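sorry for the late reply, my laptop died twice this morning and i had to redo everyting from scratch. anyway the thing you sent over, i finally got around to it. pasting the sequence first so we're on the same page, its 333 residues, then the predicted structure underneath. double check i copied it right bc i was rushing
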Amino acid sequence: MLEQEYRAFDDILLITPIFQHHTDEDVHPFDAFGNTTKPSGDWRVGAQSDPRCCGNGHLNRDGGKSISSFDVLDQFLAILTDRQLYPNIDKIAYLGHSAGGQMVQRYSIMSLLAAAYDQEDVDWVDLEFIVANPSSYTYLDERRFTYECGECSCTRNNCTCHQECSIPTTDLMIPTHHGVGKNFPCYSPHYNDWPYGIKNVEDERHEIPYVIKSGPKRAAMMYKHRHMVYLVGQNDTCNDALPTCDASCWKRDVYEEDEWPCFRNSMDTRCPAMLEGPFRRNRGLQYMKYLEAYYGEPTHELHVVEGVGYDAKGMFGSPIAIKKIFEHPNSRR
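ok and here's the structure:
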């Protein structure tokens, strides 16, 4: 904010919400907090807060108040677009890195409020979503790009592969159990469930009311109209589940014995995430190719941030990120 030259410093409003779990040290007894079931019950996918929150007591799981994390983001949007309160706002940018990037991308798909700006042609405010280095993206149908990583052993929480992965092809196929080791590194019958895809949003195991209300099919159709900017680090190429790091992986001079020289980044290595690509940079590039195939034309924009790996400061401090965050809407038109 201090270094950018697009806007006067006093013209910028920065809002930094924190989404917590009940085990975090600074949770107030009346705070809302996320539940701990992953990946479907997490705040980053729009799940309801834990009903034990908000003064209802730690034993009261039934009947306590809860709210979707996406409802919280909608509240920000509703307040900031109230012209009685903020008559001079011309741009709103949601941005997130890693887990925050996952949240921003999934919210941008499902938000009915954000979709209203596309449908009503609101021209006095530019609403954009800036997604940096997420571990995974939400796909809009069952297809994935083929590639393989030799023999992979998968549990519910992790896949470990015993050789380097091939470069994903341009072939989009539907993963099957029979395709493991031939076209795909792994297979899970739930690979296309929310949040990795838009299937089974009403499954009682991980029902998310906000997503059901939004309507996944409608959301998929409208997503191409969002103003999306994806940022991936050129050197965000490490995968903890592979035997060695890619040569371009962001290195660090000091590392723990079990880390090797790469920056171990706790990337999502569940099978549904592995079906999206072998590491974060590749997953972003593949997603852009996928969107073009899905919609039949190029859509959204992606930028590779040179010389940066899994580093939020490096990503958002880059010239392209600063430009996308702070530039005036009229400069793009």
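Residues 39 and 195 are 7 Å apart (CA to CA).
thats about all i looked at so far, will dig more tmrw
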